[in-house]
């Protein structure tokens, strides 16, 4: 089964350095095959037996602690789950600016009412949509300047989260579909 692991907060600002070649080798030692990485920010596509996502995440997290000496939170999606994320895109018009359109992958589906309470009355020109465990964010001024990204964070949502821009999401699906 093709699976995608999204590592949060590696190779950013000189901390939590994880060379991609070493990450691929670690994944293979953990028993995964057909391992591919995409960019330095921690995106791994691999094959392995069907197992619970949390089990796979914990195995990889433990391997990273053992090899690199620090903790990294990992979010897992199957190829089919990622394809559903792309297909469900409720903010389709924003895709043209792929680096200003993000998907926040959440560990669990937050309460939609709690999310709505966090959002300003008129977030324009930004936009968001929550579908299950994914939060779609259009951030025309960039993610670092986003008012929505500042309020829709892990603590108030009570979930773990990691975001990827739309170009990365599309590329990860392409890699998952590659032979």
Automatic annotation (TrEMBL):
SUPFAM superfamilies: SP0830-like. It comes from the Bacteria. InterPro entries: DUF1697. Coiled coil: none annotated. Pfam families: DUF1697. PANTHER family: BLL4334 PROTEIN, DUF1697 DOMAIN-CONTAINING PROTEIN. This is DUF1697 domain-containing protein. It comes from Conexibacter stalactiti. The lineage of its organism: Bacteria, Bacillati, Actinomycetota, Thermoleophilia, Solirubrobacterales.
């Amino acid at each position: 089964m093709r699976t995608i692991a999204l590592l949060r907060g590696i190779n950013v600002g000189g901390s939590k350095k994880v060379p991609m070649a070493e990450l691929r080798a670690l994944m293979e030692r953990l028993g995964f095959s057909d391992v591919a990485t995409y960019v330095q920010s921690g995106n791994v596509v691999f094959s392995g037996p069907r197992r619970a996502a949390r089990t796979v995440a914990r195995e990889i997290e433990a391997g990273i602690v053992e090899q690199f000496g620090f903790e990294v939170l990992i979010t897992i999606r199957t190829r089919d789950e990622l394809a559903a994320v792309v297909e469900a895109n409720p903010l389709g018009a924003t895709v043209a600016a792929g680096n200003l359109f993000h998907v926040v992958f959440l560990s669990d589906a937050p309460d939609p009412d709690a999310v709505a309470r966090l959002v300003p009355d008129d977030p324009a020109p930004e936009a968001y949509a929550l579908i299950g465990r994914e939060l779609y964010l259009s951030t025309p001024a960039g993610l670092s300047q986003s008012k929505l990204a500042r309020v829709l964070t892990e603590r108030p949502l009570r979930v773990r989260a990691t975001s990827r821009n739309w170009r990365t999401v599309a590329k990860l699906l392409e890699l998952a579909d590659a032979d």
